[in-house]
Amino acid sequence: MRRQASISERYVLSALLSKATDVIRYVVVLAMAGIYVKQYASATMETGYFIVVLLGVSVFCLVARLGLVIVRGVKSPLYVNNKVGDDPVLSFAA
């Protein structure tokens, strides 16, 4: 019985939470790119470097998260050997 709870918890957390946290990363990168475009030319040297470093860190975090999602999907997919049209709930009952 614990196995089924684990699968449902994993599905709920993966389906709901990972998409919400990914959207935040995209918004942060877009905002940092906008700040870079608007403020970099008129900023002081230290502020310019700070903007570039923050943009680099946010892009790195986004790329790392995408890479981890892809690796996790390849290494341990939620549904293994399912055909199109198979019911995912019934495939775990077997």
Key descriptive features of the protein:
0% strand; single chain; 3 helices; mainly alpha; 94 residues; elongated
Radius of gyration: 20 Å
The number of helices is 3
Give the fraction of residues assigned to helices: over 70%
Determine the strand fraction and express it as a percent band.
Answer: under 5%
Biggest pleated-sheet summary: none
Q: What structural class results from the helix and strand content?
A: mainly alpha
- What is the CA-CA span between the terminal residues? 14 Å
Query: What's the helix-strand series?
Result: HHH
Uncertain regions spanning at least 5 consecutive residues? 1-5
Overall pLDDT score: 75
Overall outline = elongated
Topology, number of strands: 0
In short:
This protein is mainly alpha-helical and 94 residues long. It is built from 3 helices and no strands.
Please characterize this protein's 3D structure.
The protein is mostly helical and 94 residues long. It has a domain at 21-75. Helices cover 80% and strands 0% of the residues. The chain crosses the membrane at residues 12-37, 49-71. Keywords: Membrane, Transmembrane, Transmembrane helix.
